[in-house]
Amino acid sequence: MGVPMKNIRNFSIIAHVDHGKSTLADRFIELTGALSARELKEQVLDTMDLERERGITIKAQTVRLTYKSLSGEDYIFDLIDTPGHVDFSYEVSRSLAACDGALLVIDASQGVEAQTLANAYLAIQNDLVLVPVINKIDLPQIQIEDSLEQMEHVIGLPRSEALLVSAKTGQGLPELFEAVVKRIPPPKGSPEAPLKALLFDSWFDSYRGVIVLIRVVDGELRTGDKIVLMASGAEYEAEEVGYLMPKPVKSGVLQTGDVGYLIAGIKKLSDARIGDTVTHRNRPTEKPLPGFKDAKSMVFCGIFPAGESNIEELRDAMEKLRLNDASLQYEPENSPALGLGFRAGFLGLLHREIVQERLEREFGLTLITTAPSVGYRVTTQTGETVEIHNPAGMPDSSNVTVIEEPVIDAVILTPDRYLGGLFKLLEERRGVQKKMEYIGPGRVLLAYTLPLNEVVFDFYNQLKQLSQGYASLDYEFVGYREGPLVKLDILINGEAVDALSLIVHEDKAQAIGRGLVERMRKVIPRQQYEVALQAAIGKRIIARETVKPFRKDVLAKLYGGDYTRKMKVLEKQKAGKKRMRRVGKVDIPQEAFLAILEVK
Amino acid sequence: MRAGLYIHFPFCAAKCPYCHFSSLPWDETSYRTWRQGLEREAAAPREAGYEFDTVYLGGGTPSLLGPDEVVWVRELVQAHFFLKIEEFTLEANPVASRTNFFGGWREAGVTRLSVGVQSFDEAVLRTLGRPYTAEEALRFCRTGRRAGFDALSIDLMIGIPGETPAAVERSLDTALGLEPDHVSVYILENVEGLPFEELLVRHPVDEDAVVDAYDRIRDALEAAGLRQYEISNFARLGKECRHNLKYWRYEPFIGLGPSAGSHLPGRRWCNKTCLDDWADALSRNETIREDVVELTPSLAAREALVFGLRLVEGVDLGAFTERFNVDIMALFGREINELVAEGLLVLSAGRLRIPSRNFLVSNRILAKFV
C-alpha cells in the first residue's frame, strides 16, 4: 500500500453497550471515504438482522481505512471492532490483543458504566494506549463534567486527555482522527524476523471456507507461502491475503504491523483457533504468541424441537450455526420428557437468546428451550468430581458430598438514589459486598461476589427495573464455591419432568417451588383433564397447583357459508399449537419451561 | 332431490363490531347493484334436478326489506327455481320501525321469523353496539309473536365482556316469556382483526362463566319444552329450522348473493364476498364461485361427520356408508374407539353422537376427523 509501518495505527473502539461505538465506527468508515453513507447502511452496519434490531454488535467487524492527516501524510487506520455486550467480553479481549491502542467511548449522558470500566481494564491489561472519547455531546442536558470526573476518578485517565465528540453530528471528529495519529503508537515488530502473526478472529464463509483475521507481529506473509498454525501444528498454503476495506481487497502480502485476512483452505472453524500463532513452515518463529484460553460456557439449557420441527432439522441448524459461532457448545441430550435434543452451553444469557432467535429465524425452527442453568461441580461419595450442566443429571442427594456452584465478581455502577432497591436485590440473590465507592457526585460503584445461578434468573431485568434503566452490570467468573444447594423437581400429574428440574439454594427452595408452580398454572392452557402441578425436593412435596380442565372449546355457530372457515379452524387445532410439547397427556407451552424466569 | 335455497342480503343499518359475516351499510346504489346481481345470478344456468323446500333470507339485515321487496325476492326465485316452499325464514333485527311490516312479510310468504335479539339486557346490548334497546327488542318480538308466523326464533348471545349472571338470567326470562318456538344460543367468538378483538383482549371473558351461562340457558330451555337439537339450537318439537338442518345433515343447498355458500353432492363453494366483485362478475358472465372444494367421497364423509356430530341426533353410520360409499369405522375406527372409551362419543344402535354434556368441548373431538 506504500504506507510505512510508522504510519499504521491499529486500534479498537471500546464502550459500554449503547454508548455509540457502532455509530462512531461508521463515521470513521464514512469520513475516511471507504464507503458512502448509503453503502454504509447497506453493508457495514452489523451484518446480522438481529444485531441491527437489538442495536448490539455480536460479531466483531474489522476494517482498514486510509486517512490523510492535517500534516498531509497518509495513514492506515486498522479499526478493529469489538462486540458490545457483557457476554462477549472474552471476545473483546481477543480483539484487543491485535491492537496498539483503543478509543474508550463514554456516553456523555450516561457517564462511566460497568462495561466502560471492564473494557478499560481489559485494554490496560493488554498495554494499550487509551484515548478517552466523550460522545453524544450534541444531546441536551448532559453533564460532561460528571463523565470527566468519573473517568479521572475510576479509570485514572486525566480529563485533559478526553476528546469531546458527537459521532452523530460529526462534531470533534477531525480532532479525534488527529489524536489517533498522534497518540496511538505505530506497531512495533521486526520486518526481518521470521513470520509471527496473531490469529484473532475467524468465521466461516460458505463459498471460501474459513476466513481468519491476523495481525502480523513480525515478518511478512505472502500469497502462496507455506504456513503453520503453531498450536494445532496444521500446515496450510496461504491462498489469499488482503485487507477488509471493508470489502475484501487482495494485497498479495501482509507486512509487519498489518491487520488483514487470510484464506488458507482451512476446512473447519475449530481448526482456526483464536489466539493461535501463524508462522512460516520453513522459517518458523522461535516462540509463539501467548494465545488465549477457550471461551468458557457459563449458561446452559436444553434445546428441543417443537411443533413441526424435528431433531434432524435442529441438528443440522446447530451444526451450521456453530460454523460461525465457535463459542456455542452443545452435546446431544435425551430427555425422558422431551425426547431428543441438545444441551447447549453459552457465554451468557444474551448469547443464549441470540442463538435461539437465530435458530428460529434463520432456520425456521420451532423450539422449546428449558430454563437456563449454570454448571455445578459435584463431588460424590466415591470422591469423584463431576461437572453437571443439566439439573436433571444431579446425582441423588444421598450420594453427594459436596456441591459447588460458579461464582462471579460483579461490578455495578448506579446513581445512588437506587441503592436501596439494589441492596435488597443483591442480598436476595445471595450477594456479598466487596466494595462500595462513590466515583463522582451521586454515582456509586458496587462490587459484589454473587453465585452465577442467582444472576441467570432475571437478575439483569430486575437490576434495570429497580434503577429505571440506569444501573449497569459487568461480571467475570472467578471460581466455584460450595453451597447448600438442592434439586427442585416439578411433577406433572405425579410424574417428575426432567426438563423442568432446577438447582436452587436450600433456603429459597420453598418460595421458588411455590412461585414456580403458581406461574406454571397461569401459562399452561386448560386441557381436557385436570393437570396437577407439584414442586418437590426429593420425596417431599412443597407446593401444588391445579390447572382446571377446559370447559369450552367449541364453534358455537355454524352455517353453510362457514364450512371452509370452520374446517380450517379444526385443521389448525388438529395440527396442534406451535411451541407446545406433549409430556405424558399434557401439552406444555414454552412459557411453562421458562416460568422460573418470571418467579419473583 | 330436496335442497335449500339461501339468499344473502348483504346490508345492515350499521356494522356490529363483533360480526364477521359479510355486510355493508345500506345505500340506494349498492342496493340496486345487489338487486341487479341477484336477478342475473338467479337466471344463470346451474345444476339442475333440485326441489327447493326451504328458503332462507339471511344477511346482513334482511328485515331492512319491506314486504314488497320480499315479494320481489320470492317471485324472482320462483321464476328460476323449482320451489315447493315448506319453510321460508326471514332474519330480522328488532327495530321498532319494522314492526308494521309483519303482516306484509307474512303475506309475502315468510313462515319463520328469526330475530337477532342477542340480549334483553341494556348494558350488554350497548357493549355489542346493537342499534336498539331491550324494551324495543321485547316489543318487536311480542308483536312478531302475535303476527301469526309458523315459528318465531330468538337469537341469544353469551360470552360478552361485562355480561353478569343476572344479565343472562334477565335475557333468558324475557325470552321465555315470549314463548318462542325456537332459540339459538351463540357464544361470542373472537375473530382476529375485528374491532371487538381489542375489547376481548382487554376484558377476557371467564371460561367458567360462559359455560355456566350456557348450561343454565340449556336447562331452562329444555324445561320450557325447547329441546336442544344442535350445539347452539333449541326448538319445540317440529319447529326445528329445516333449512339449517340441511347444513348440519350435509344436505344440498344453493346460496345466492355475495359471500353465500353452496353445497351440492361432490362440490361446495362460496360466492365472491365483495358485492361489487360479485355483481361485476355476473355482469360479465364470469364465474362468481370462489373456494371451490371438490368433495371426494372421503372428504365428504369426513365433513358430513364433523357437521353431523353437532346434532343431538348424531350421525347414522350405516346411512353414511350407503351415502358416501365410505366406511367411517375403517377410516376412523381407532379415533372413534378412543373417544368412545373416554366418554366423549357415544356409539349406540349404529348412531354416533356427542353426548350433549360434551358439546362445549366438541372441537377437540371434531378435530380428530378433519
What does this structure look like?
The complex is a heterodimer of chains A (600) and B (370). Chain A has 600 residues and is α+β, with helices and mostly antiparallel strands. Chain A folds into five domains: 5-183, P-loop containing nucleotide triphosphate hydrolases (Rossmann fold), CATH 3.40.50.300; 196-280, Elongation Factor Tu (Ef-tu), domain 3 (Beta Barrel); 299-369, Alpha-Beta Plaits; 377-483, Alpha-Beta Plaits (2-Layer Sandwich), CATH 3.30.70.240; 486-598, 2-Layer Sandwich (Alpha-Beta Plaits). In chain A, 26% of the residues lie in helices and 34% in strands. In chain A, the strands form seven sheets. An eight-stranded antiparallel sheet of chain A has the order 11-10-16-7-8-15-12-13, with no helix packed on it. In chain B, 40% of the residues lie in helices and 23% in strands. The model of chain B has no long low-confidence stretch (mean pLDDT 93). Chain B has two domains: 2-246, Aldolase class I (TIM Barrel), CATH 3.20.20; 296-370, Arc Repressor Mutant, subunit A (Orthogonal Bundle). Chain B contains 14 helices and 17 strands. With 370 residues, chain B is of the alpha/beta class. Classes of the chains: A alpha+beta (600), B alpha/beta (370).
The CATH topology of the largest domain in chain B is given as TIM Barrel
The residue-averaged pLDDT of chain A reads 88
Number of strands of chain A: 33
CATH topology-level name of the largest domain in chain A: Rossmann fold
Return the CATH class of the largest domain in chain B: Alpha Beta
Shape of chain B: globular
Assembly type = heterodimer
